């Protein structure tokens, strides 16, 4: 029997830094898809920070949970044409979250990246 996956997830494109209502969702996958890196850095990565709040327009604070990231770290290497994902356990989070991505570079001349970010919430989502 197939599960109706679509009704058990929420998707937020251009998600970096946006307030997201995670009501009922216990986990998330955050994806970075890098399409270009300029400035010839010797290494490239993306670091993400997860903040949370009880209200959408309130003051967001860092999530204090050492098990927030599942099988990954907050900062990961990225490469053009390869999707990088973070598995996030939202159990310790308040209702509203923000996942903010920050590109990190070593070396190069004014390095920069063009990337798209997507947040997929799952694990019940109100079902």
Descriptive overview:
This protein has one domain (12-122): Jelly Rolls (Sandwich), CATH 2.60.120. The protein has 127 residues and is an all-beta fold. The model has no long low-confidence stretch (mean pLDDT 90). The strands form 2 sheets. Strands 2, 4, 5, 6 and 8 form a 5-stranded antiparallel sheet that branches. It contains no helices and 9 strands.
Task: Output the keywords.
about 130 residues, mainly beta, Jelly Rolls, 5-stranded antiparallel β-sheet, 4-stranded antiparallel β-sheet, 9 strands
CATH C-level class: Mainly Beta
Structural domain count: 1
Strand content: over 45%
Assign an overall shape: globular
Task: Tell me, rounded to a whole number, the average pLDDT.
Answer: 90
Separate helix tally:
0
Report the order of strands and helices: EEEEEEEEE
Low-confidence stretches: none
Rg from alpha-carbon coordinates: 15 Å
Secondary structure layout plus pairing:
Elements: E1 10-13, E2 20-21, E3 25-38, E4 43-53, E5 61-62, E6 75-77, E7 83-89, E8 96-106, E9 112-124
Antiparallel strand pairs: 1-9, 2-8, 3-7, 3-9, 4-5, 4-6, 4-8
